[in-house]
Amino acid sequence: MQLSHTGYYADYYLYGGAVAGLTISTLATTPIPDWGGWALAYGAGIFSWTFAEYQLHRWILHHVPYVKEMHEAHHHDQKALIGTPGWLSFVLFTLLVFLPAYLIAGFSIGGAFAAGFTFGYLIYITVHHGVHHWRIRPGGYLYRLKHRHALHHHFDDMGNYGVITSFWDRVFRTNIKVRDRREAEAGN
Domain map of the chain by residue range? Predict the structure, then answer.
C-alpha cells in the first residue's frame, strides 16, 4: 500500500528501537557465561530472517491476491513509498516471531532470536530502500545487490527473491545471473 513519508520512514525508528530495546534487555538479563548461546540465537534470528524474506517474497508477494497487486505496483513504480504499515508488521513480528521464541526459549534466548530476526528485517528495509533510492557506485556489495534486484524487477517472477543475500536463491535455484559479454566471450 502507498504510505506517507512519515509512515514509510517510521519503520526505521520503530524497528531500530525494537532491535535496540530487545538487544539491550535480553543481553542484560543473560548471565555472562550464557552470552555465547545468546549470540548464537541472535545470529540464528538474522539467518532465519533471510529465509523468511526469500519465502515471503517468492510465495506471498508474487502469488497472494491483493498483496501481489501491491507488490506489482512497487515493480511498476520503484521509487514509490509502497510497503506494509509499520503497526501491522510490528503486530505480526510480535505474534509470529517474538511470542513463539519467548515461549520456546525464554526471554533471554527467545528475545535474542527475535532481536536478530528483527535486525535482519531492518537490514532488509534499509538495503531495499537503498537499491531503489540511493546513487550507488559500481564495485561494492550494495552495487551487486542493486544489480541482482534490478534483474528481479526485469524478469519479475523468475527469481532473485532474496534482497540482502543470494544464498536462498542459489539453494532453491532461483538465482538469475546474466553473464556479461566478456564472460560469455571468454567461455566461447
Answer: 5-134
Tens of pLDDT, residues 157-174: 788 999 999 999 999 999
188 pLDDT above the threshold of 50: no
The C-alpha torsion from 175 through 146 and 132 to 47, rounded to 10°, is: 60
Q: Nearest to residue 123, comparing CAs of 115, 103, 108, 57?
A: 115
pTM above 0.85, yes or no: yes
How many residues can be counted in the chain? Answer: 188
Q: Give how far Cα 79 sits from Cα of 58, 125, 130, 184, Å.
A: 21, 14, 10, 32
Phi then psi for residue 30, to 5 deg, are -100, 125
Do the Cβ atoms of 164 and 145 come closer than 8 Å? yes
